[in-house]
Design brief:
The chain is 71% helix and 0% strand. It is mostly helical.
């Protein structure tokens, strides 16, 4: 696809890609598929995505997947494998490894802790903890809220 050159066009295309990512979180997406959805060349997309979000597409996708996985661990009785598959990890062991790296505990232990925190402190502490568990900065709250809504179809 022909690359667009103005900052406004790039931002609009990145917004399109973020919507696409939210709607296809459960799929194993390639950078070519995402950049194509944004109607940008791969190189322009990679640069533009980092400019708009402050992070790589891969880091953003891992962040969104892990936030969604934490939410599923807390709110559903799904198995760890089902959670991993539901948010787009290609296998449960990859999800387990990333969860352990990021949060210092296994998904099973994280589920127990989230359940305990929710029982003791309610949703307020859960939301605060989820923000603290995030390792990558969202590029702005309004856009993140739109993408949370786009991902709420689960």
């Amino acid at each position: 696809p022909k690359a667009l050159h103005t900052a406004r066009d790039r931002s609009a295309c990145i917004e399109e890609a973020l919507t696409f990512l939210g709607a296809n979180l459960h799929k194993n997406l390639t950078l070519d598929e995402i950049s194509s959805a944004a109607m940008m060349s791969r190189r322009s997309f990679t640069t533009g995505f980092h400019t708009v979000t402050g992070q790589s597409c891969g880091n953003y996708l891992r962040q969104v997947r892990m936030r969604r996985a934490v939410d599923l661990l807390r709110k559903t009785p799904l198995s760890i494998s089902q959670v991993a598959e539901g948010v787009g990890f290609y296998d449960a062991s990859h999800f387990y490894k990333l969860c352990t790296e990021l949060y210092g505990v296994s998904p099973v232990q994280l589920r127990r802790e989230l359940s305990q925190w929710t029982r003791e402190y309610g949703d307020r502490i859960y939301r605060q903890t989820l923000r603290e568990l995030s390792w990558a900065k969202p590029y702005d709250e309004a856009s993140m809220e739109r993408h949370r809504c786009a991902m709420s179809f689960y």
